[in-house]
Amino acid sequence: MSGLEHRQLEPEILDGLAADDPRALAARRDLRRINALMFQTKIMASLLRKFVPRPPRRILEVGAGDGKFMLAVARRMVGQWPGVELVMLDRVDLITAQLRGDFDRLGWAVEGVAADVFGWARKNEDTRFDAITVNLFLHHFDDAELVRLFSLMAPKAPLLLAAEPSRTKLALAATRLLPAIGANDVTRNDAAQSVRAGFRGSELSGLWRAVNGKPLEERRAGLFSHIFVGASAGDDP
Ligand SMILES: C[S@@+](CC[C@H](N)C(=O)[O-])C[C@H]1O[C@@H](n2cnc3c(N)ncnc32)[C@H](O)[C@@H]1O
């Protein structure tokens, strides 16, 4: 028994730190390196190419963090997808003028929303997007919360695309190597915690079906990632 048979959720340290806390700033820098090591940008871009058939007008990125992940995705997609409107939502307001400038230069318009996703979704019932993306976000929630989240997200877009941690021994072992890239205590704790709360098999598909959605793909991707793509009920993406 590896202890990874079932998801285990503990609060992550980063979620309890102020945005300008030096440990939080360092942890967000670490997160950028972890995204690179996990090939998360490449994974998300290939999902978008495969499942979003026409250039989208509006995308919602939930749990966007400092927005650097989505900027890297936009750089990969801009050739095929000019002029996308991107709404980046996070509990913490981390969107800087420099980031807006980076998106402007790509011709993408960015709106930052600082809000809890559950409260925001309930208050914005009629807001619609062509796709919703999440990166290293769903694992923050237990299964009941995910069903609630999915029930709020599914009516907002024909597709939800997710790149999450894979709950495997290999991924957990890799988190023990994080000191080698200079990761701080917050990152070392939260990365291991994220793997234990991550996904395997068809767990997300089951939760998506609980809100009458249609799972399109769920599998391990690369060495450490787990992807999920779901279509909303009645939508033919
Ligand atoms: C592990 S970070 C990933 C950030 C970003 N997607 C990336 O890859 O760099 C998870 C993010 O989810 C945000 N978050 C957690 N719970 C949230 C909630 N209920 N509503 C909105 N954002 C939330 C956190 O503030 C954090 O920025």
From TrEMBL:
<dbReference type="GO" id="GO:0032259">
    <property type="term" value="P:methylation"/>
</dbReference>
<keyword id="KW-0489">Methyltransferase</keyword>
<dbReference type="Pfam" id="PF13649">
    <property type="entry name" value="Methyltransf_25"/>
</dbReference>
<feature type="domain" description="Methyltransferase">
    <location>
        <begin position="59"/>
        <end position="153"/>
    </location>
</feature>
<dbReference type="InterPro" id="IPR029063">
    <property type="entry name" value="SAM-dependent_MTases_sf"/>
</dbReference>
<protein>
    <submittedName>
        <fullName>2-polyprenyl-3-methyl-5-hydroxy-6-metoxy-1, 4-benzoquinol methylase</fullName>
    </submittedName>
</protein>
<keyword id="KW-0808">Transferase</keyword>
<dbReference type="GO" id="GO:0008168">
    <property type="term" value="F:methyltransferase activity"/>
</dbReference>
<dbReference type="InterPro" id="IPR041698">
    <property type="entry name" value="Methyltransf_25"/>
</dbReference>
